[in-house]
Hints:
Elements: E1 4-13, E2 18-27, E3 30-35, E4 48-51, E5 56-59, E6 61-63, H1 71-78, E7 82-87, H2 95-105, E8 110-113, E9 115-116, H3 117-126, H4 134-139, H5 144-147, H6 152-167, E10 173-175, H7 185-198, E11 202-204, H8 220-231, E12 234-237, H9 240-244, H10 248-260, E13 264-269, E14 274-278, H11 286-289, E15 299-301, H12 311-320, E16 325-329, H13 336-347, E17 352-353, H14 382-398, H15 404-420, E18 440-443, E19 464-469, E20 472-476, E21 479-480
Parallel strand pairs: 1-4, 1-5, 6-7, 7-8, 9-10, 10-11, 11-12, 12-13, 13-17
Antiparallel strand pairs: 1-2, 2-3, 5-18, 14-16, 15-16, 18-19, 19-20, 20-21
Helix pairs in contact: 3-6, 6-7, 7-8, 8-10
The site of zinc ion (ZN) has 4 residues, from loops.
Amino acid sequence: MRAVLLTGGWIIDPATGREETADVLIAGDTIQQVGPSLGAGKPADDALVVDVSGKVVGPGFVDLHSHVNSIAGQRLQALDGVTTALELEAGLLPVDRAYAEAASAGRPLNYGFSASWGMARAEVLCGVESEASLLQALSVLGDLTWQGDSNPGQLSRWLGRLESELADGALGIGILQGYAPRSNPAEYRAVSELAARAGAPTFTHVREIRESDAGTPVDGTEEAAQAAMDFGGQVHHCHVNSTSRRHIDRVLSTIDRARDGGAGITVETYPYGAGSTGIGAAFLAPERLLAWELKPENLVMVSTGERVRDETHLRQLRQNDPGAPCIVEYLDEQSPADRALLEQSLAFPDSVVASDAMHITWPDGSTDSRQWPLPQGGMTHPRTSGTYARSLRMMVRERGYWSWLEAFRRCSYLPSQVMEGICPEFRKKGRLLPGADADLVVIDPERITDLATYFDSTRPSLGVEHLLVNGEFVVRDGEVFPEAYPGRGLRGAPV
Ligand SMILES: [Zn+2]
């Protein structure tokens, strides 16, 4: 592979805090040198020289929460600055099959999967045969047996299943606790203990918080924080923005307190006021909506763009196709007070950016395409296309909360650190240093912005000029290379 020399960019290494105008020399899949005027010394005669002066150069973003697992979805994420897209919150089961399928189809970006708590329970409680598919995982979430408790025999069977997934290289355990909100807290403690013992991180969509469900067996954030304290494991709290809604102050202070007490708990945020999930989710039941300060009209079906009319309509939709994706408007992005809440979760110290990117659905039911530009009519959540560019626009360009160094720390370095224990390969990601992986993004700091909207959700972001994965261009001069599939599977070290 031809060496690449990026000249004259503003380089940022969030691991050391270094930032200056310098060149970056890439040989094969590795960063070889970073320094001033590397071009002058003719380091490699046949190097491809790319002038990036006036641009910001940093390690590509590591997304801890991407459900796309597709070529089409990864290309949208590439144009948003992502070089590694990990499915950790839901996970896939069996991971062996998920890795094999991704490898045989090819991926533009690096990828990896956690073990799926949801599907391990579905196998044992509902007799479902796992197919390493997110759509299948979404479709079980509305099942009342699945939402219920496990007896001791069932519990030990699905814990065993998760353990064998870790042995097969799963990157931790993804726990959709919020979708089984009344299930026995002892189960959450058992899986947290197992993960801590195995040295595997957990990624939790937390149970209901007490403000939105006075009858919750335990507050969702407290439960996660307590598990981190008691078992000493590494607990990652997913999308703190969407599960906390207007109670972000209280939730963040719960996390703060746990961290002060030594708990290994990390958090992530995405910069949108609406979430996305299957219409059959427990917390979208008509009788539960009010506690979330929602009405049926705050739900929009992704495949049709249809707004839910009333309770009767909602019941019908939940019955017909509980896995059908919908948009949930939990904050009003037009309201300054609600926008301030979103900014607060993004600004929380050490909170990482993670997209919760969803798969794309086309009207014929397909969820992937090698075609680029994407075929018309694909629908997803705009966070799939725009999370990172939107965060940079809001937090760096418009509001000045983050320097560029801080932005790369939250988008690249801190998420890599979350993964280093389970997968040492992440020690070479999230950094712009000689010897680090050549996963790089070159950004135009004046232009970077999201363009995707709730109704034009596959519109790519603007301002990612170049993106390299393992030393290969996936984006060059703002255009996707449709022949580039340099992504590699990242697996957990055997435990
Ligand atoms: Zn979630």
